[in-house]
Structure formats: structure tokens, C-alpha cells
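Hi R.,

Here's the chain you asked about this morning:
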Amino acid sequence: MANFSKSTVPQFSVDVYQNEFLPEGGREVNAIVTVTSTGGGTSGGIPLTGASAGPAALPGRAPAAAVVIMVDCSGSMEYPPTKMRNARDATAAAIDTLRDGVTFAVVAGTHVAGEVYPGGGRLAVADPGTRARAKEALRGLGAGGGTAIGTWLTLADRLLASADVPIRHGILLTDGRNEHESPGDLRAALDACAGRFTCDARGVGTDWEVKEVTGIASALLGSADIVADPAGLAADFTRMMENAMGKEVADVALRLWTPVGVEIVFVKQVAPTVEELTDRRTEAGPRSGDYPTGSWGDESRDYHVCVRVPEAGIGQEMLAARVSLILPDPAGGTPRSLSQGLVRAVWTDDMTASTSINPQVAHYTGQAELADVIQQGLDARKSGDFDGATAKLGRAVQLAAASGNADTAKLLSKVVDVVDAATGTVRLKAKVAEADEMTLETRSTKTVRVKK
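And here is the predicted structure, written out as C-alpha cells:
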């Protein structure tokens, strides 16, 4: 039996948007699941369990959280010299954003990982004194050595594991490629850290590898972005830390139960970013599987669930899937269901009903395609396939315009000259700034919410 305490987490709600009608012989059912959390430790919410709600999670107090900031200190951070100074200033700004009571550490990353503060394999408890001492320790940060990001993550994991708190978070900054360990070493570190802490990753300048940084964030359910100008690091680190401090509950899972004969085609997050979750399923009982969603504060996210149902006759209907939000009990007791929604299938001979595409499903299908064609277009451009790049990026311009994704449209306009957005007619620009191309690639998965 779960051991529930008297603290609170956000109130979760699940809304399902779909066209449940299928034509005769129809089998594929699509639904957009909107998950919203509101309230929690500062504004109400629902009572929840043990370690998920220690004293730091009570109303009016800081969240029970631990944070490790990983700062690239490899030799390339010295060029230009302002880069290292900006990294120190950004880390100081993040430390200033920590709430009292949150435990934290700073790690210097090169071809090895080193503790900057507090040291000794410990975490410090944020208060005016520890913040001042941590910022003093940052003055000793210098640039030299290589880059082995897996070692940084492994040290961060070890430090965070020492904290008996629900929210464990990392912030990682790099300016270069992961050249001093194998891709397999980094993948092994990510696999070991997945589910243990979340991590936001940032690339500063333009000498890093986009797929490495976005891969780190994706594996650890965090955000990824580019800070092309090092002068922008402090503001970005402050925003990241503010977001981390707003988290109330960790390890929420999207649980999908399906009846006998129903196949899961895919499960993906589609807002605020596109994130494939299908292969991250862990079994949770007969015909049930959990998909990780990470940490939550006051926010809303959308998920696209697609299932394949058995054929049925006209007039038949069935429950195609049940979607629940699940929070495990850290004491190993019964997990708690926070909210749920139902996905239905109804067979009809009404062609108008069965051929109508739900607006939310249509919108996010387009947003997922937008992310794909941007990546394909940029890959084609890099390989010299300019016709293929033009076609893919033209389709991206068309999708961005149709969905109202103005931010992505603006980024695309730095890479192509738009002749006609509605038809996707574009010309590749002869010269593209490296920062513009990397920004488009890094932010390609960011979506806009459907207009309801």
C-alpha cells in the first residue's frame, strides 16, 4: 500500500482530442492527448506521497530539488577569451537563481570531470553563504584539456544520487565536439543516467555538434538550444534555472493500456517539442506500458497516440486505449493514477464522419513532419544534394506557414529565400551563416500549439 504524506503536487488533467469514427475496414485510430498540470506546492494541488513531498515541497517553500551545473572547461573555451568569462558569469547567474534549500554542485568538464564546488563528492545547500562561496570558486575555472561529456554526466549522476529528493536536474554547457571518448561511451553514460535525472543541454558558439547536444537533452528529457553569442549565456542559464526551480514532481509516466488485439503504432510528445517515446516503453502489467515524461511544474504538453485496432462491423464500437498519468511511489508501493482519458473507435457508414480529420491530429501530424523535413533538408544540403534540400526545406516553409509556426518560419528564411510560402517554393541561399543553420537544426523540433 502506498505511503502517502500530506504534501501536494500539481493537479493533473487529461483531455483527449480525436475523431473516433472509422469507415468499414478502418483500423488506425489517432488521438492527441493534452496533459495539463496546475497548482502544486504553491497554489493547491493534490496530496501526494513520501519522498515526492518532503518538507521543501510544502506550500510556500522551495521544491525538494538537487541541481548540478556542468561547465565545459576544455581548451577551446579559451577562444575567444570572453567565452570562458561568459561561462563563469552564466554559472554565477544560475547559482543566484537557486532557491534556498535546494542542493547543488558545480562540475568542470574536460576529458575528465572535476568537482568545482563544494567538492568531496557532496552537494551544498543553497543559502547566501554557499552561493557566495560557489561563485568565488568559479574564479578558478580555466580552459584546458579535451572533451569527454560522458564523464561529466557520470559525475553529475553520482552527485545527484546522494540527494534524497524527487527533482534531480542537470545543466550542461559545451562548446565543442565530444572528441575524447567514443560515441559508445557517451551512449552508455546516457543510458545509465536516463530516468535518474533530467538535463538541459546548451551549445555555445558554433564548433559543437548539434546531434550530440540534442541527443543528450532528448535522452535525459531536457531542453536543447544554441547560444551562438556567449554574451547571451547568463540570460539563458537564468531562464533554465528558473524553469528547473518551477518543477514540482518528477518521474510522471504516461501509461497506455490497450485491449486484446490492439497494436501500438507510436507514442510521441508533439508539444512543446517533438519527442519520440515509442521505444522508451517499459512494461507495467498486462497490456500496459509506461512512457517517461520527466518533471512537471505548472505547464501543458501534448502527446500523439496512434493505435491499430481489429476490424469491426458498422455500428460496432470499442475502447481503443486508456491513457493515464502515473506517479510511482518512491517507497515501492502502489503507483498513483493522477488522471486518465479514453481513446475510442466507432465504425460508421457515414462518410463525412469517418473521413473528417480532427484539427488537433492534423495540426500535430504537420508539426512532426515539419521537424522531419527540416532535418532531412539540412542533411541533404550538407551532403551536396541541393535539389533534395530545396524540396525538403520548401515543404518545411509550407508547413510552417500553414500551421502558424512563425518562429520556425523566421529561422527557415535565414537558410532559404522564400518565393511562395503557401506552395513551398524556395531557393537555397548561396551563403548561410553557420550559426543560422545550427539554430534551425537545434530548434527544428519546437512546435506551436494548435489553435482551439
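One quick note: The chain has eleven helices and 21 strands.

Cheers,
M.
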